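> run fold NmrA-like domain-containing protein
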Amino acid sequence: MARTALVTGATGTIGGALVPALLDAGWEVRVLTRHPDSLDRAWVDRVQVAEGDAADAAVLGRALHGADVAYYLLHSMDDEGDFVARDRALATGFADAAGEAGTRRIVYLSGLHPDGDLSPHLASRVEVGDILLASGVPTAVLQAGVVLGEGSASFAMLRHLTERLPVMIGPRWLTNRSQPIALADVVHYLVGAADLPPEVNRTIDIGMDEVLTYADMMRRYARVTGLRPRLVATVPVLTPWLASHWVGLITPVPAAIAKPLVGSLIHDAVRRETDAAALLGDPAGGLLGYDEAVRRALAGADPKRWGRRSALVGAALASVAVAGALSALALARPRHTLTPGIERKANA
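> ok
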């Protein structure tokens, strides 16, 4: 019998890549979206489209009706109000609706994180996972670090920082450790999670075998793409708030997205659970390594375009100037507006 998977966040990078993979695996796919016109034309005619807002209980009930598995790929990456409360309410409503609909499994993509205090955005992602795990519906919370793939905001940030700054003086999180993962491998694990036995209700850490600092990833990106070697140094003055604005100045990643991304990067993002392959099975041929993941993510792109438009020395000086300007901004910013404890805490 045909099985139905509901995918939320189908207009995002992860969700947009997951839908055709589920179709190829024999699933009937239903997508819940507020913007049907934004769905990928390559597969939109092969899926059921439920139009509406996931915050609406009636809309959720209709979308989840008859769904065997529901993919929760929603989270707030904006500056519009209390995103923690919004994500908490959205996840709670989804968990309740999935239970009422008799959904067999929920699958959620969260982030790798250490124990202890987290950035607000990453803490919210963890809280959403906890809400879904406590829903009574068997839930798999896949936890990933930097996703290397076309359309991934975290990859776009890495790419543009590396391409535009041959010399980079940046924040301390450039030395934090991370286990990135290729977009194709995230999708493979997400598809596999739909078939987990009902007794599995837990987090599952996913990532490639390589552990790299962010500075390592920039240097490797430059080597893979044939750019000149990148020189990277860190300074202690760039807080997450300043660093997010610094990223917004250097890259085309919007500040509303850069802010939560930077907030997450202040932590190490490495696997603590190592049984993803046993639970979900690795892709045929194994997980992609960092270099190959970058090559695939850049298919059709030109990583040297910026270098041809900007002199290397000018870009290096711009990097230093930005760091200096933001340091001055930190000193000039009114004390009462600084967020205390910001080092504490989200396909699609």
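The domain at 4-334 is CATH 3.40.50.720 (Rossmann fold).
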